Amino acid sequence: MKRTRSQTKESISVSKSESLTASSSKLPFRAKKIPRLPSSSNNNKNKETLIPEDSIPPPLPTPKPLTSTGEMELALHHLRAADVTLAACIDAFPTPHFHTHRSPFFSLVKSIISQQLSNKASQSIEDRFVALCGGPHSVGPDSVLALSAQQLRGVGISGPKATYLHDLASKYRDGLLSDSSILEMDDETLYKKLTMVKGIGPWSVHMFMIFTLHRPDVLPVGDLVVRRGVERLYGLKSLPQPSQMEKLCEQWKPYRSVGSWYMYRLVEAKGILPLPPPTSLL
User: Fold this and answer.
1) Where are the domains of the chain?
2) Disordered: where is this region (predicted)?
3) What is the CB-side half-sphere exposure of residue 93 using CA atoms within 13 A?
4) Which residue among 14, 121, 126, 134 is buried most deeply as judged by most CB within 10 Å?
5) What is the largest CA-CA distance in the chain?
6) Helices 71-82 & 84-92, crossing angle to 10 degrees?
7) pLDDT, tens digit, for every residue of 96-115?
8) Angle, to 10 degrees, between the axis of helix 202-211 and the axis of helix 256-268?
9) Grouped pLDDT means (10 residues each) for the chain, 282 residues
10) How far, in Å, CA of 214 to CA of 88, rounded?
11) How far is CA 76 from CA 91, 200, 216, 260, in A?
12) Contact 195, 201 (CB under 8 A)
């Protein structure tokens, strides 16, 4: 059978290709490797995962505590100018004083122990707990973890609260929390970290931030006494809801902790201020 001219060319081409492949190992020089360019999908992936340093927001500054020199004077000056109604309350009561001699850890322990108890019962249980630990200076994560739930129940601490104390101490032991880091955290970060501890909710965190850390701009929107104080201060027709508290007390920023302190005094001292007429601030 005769081959056509095109079939002959194809046969010669295949033959040359096979010959070159078979003898490639005998070439007197190494073949150059052609680098593979990254695909566009890889490029896009890299662009998505790499974040420019200048686009990362800096950490929020830790606010000056109210116990800092001159900070309370600044707070009172601001509140008087921002809220005329609150100014009358400020003039009727002594200047707030914030002080504590306990470490952040000890304060959080005390907060857990005192939940849903009277001051007298709470203090009695706390005294027995401190003695069990070996004294006030011995209250720490290690000493708490060394106590069994049965030992804690023996001094009046309930089973759930024993679990809460162990969870708090474990987070200290694991490095998720520490006294030094708590002092350095901004309010938002601190709130998120502390509410991760079993048994510590928003109200406990707000009280801790105001009365232990002396943070200036904390509004405990869920605190019944503070809500009653706001209701009385502005002559509201009903108890304000937490969302309404944010709106009503917006003008107190950045010293809402001080405004909240005066709400406690206002509720405790009934009749010291004349009731304002009902208002429709909400």
Assistant:
1) 64-98+216-282, 102-213
2) 1-68
3) 23
4) 126
5) 123
6) 130
7) 998 878 899 999 999 999 99
8) 100
9) 51 46 45 52 50 58 88 97 96 90 94 95 97 95 97 97 98 97 96 97 96 97 96 95 95 98 92 50 40
10) 23
11) 10, 30, 11, 12
12) yes
Q: In this structure, what is the dihedral angle of CA atoms 21, 22, 26, 29, given to the nearest 10 degrees?
A: 0
Q: Report the distance separating Cα 68 and Cα 54, nearest Å.
A: 32
- Round to the nearest angstrom and report the end-to-end CA distance of the chain: 103
User: How many angstroms separate the CA atoms of 201 and 205, rounded?
Assistant: 6
Q: Which two tokens stand for residue 54?
A: 């200048």
pLDDT of residue 52: 56
Give me the DSSP letters along 155-211: TT--HHHHHHHHHHHHHHHTTS--HHHHHHS-HHHHHHHHTTSTT--HHHHHHHHHH
Angle CA 219–224–229, to nearest 5: 75
User: Regarding the domain delimited by 64-98+216-282, which CATH topology (the fold level of the hierarchy) does it fall under?
Assistant: Endonuclease Iii, domain 2 (1.10.1670)
Residue 127 pLDDT? 97
Cβ pair 220, 203 in contact under 8 A: yes
Q: Quote the pTM value.
A: 0.76
pLDDT tens, residue by residue, 62-73: 889 999 999 999
Task: Give the Cα separation of 35 and 18 in Å (integer).
Answer: 25
Rounded Cα distance between 195 and 87, Å, is: 34
Superfamily of domain 102-213: Hypothetical protein; domain 2 (1.10.340.30)
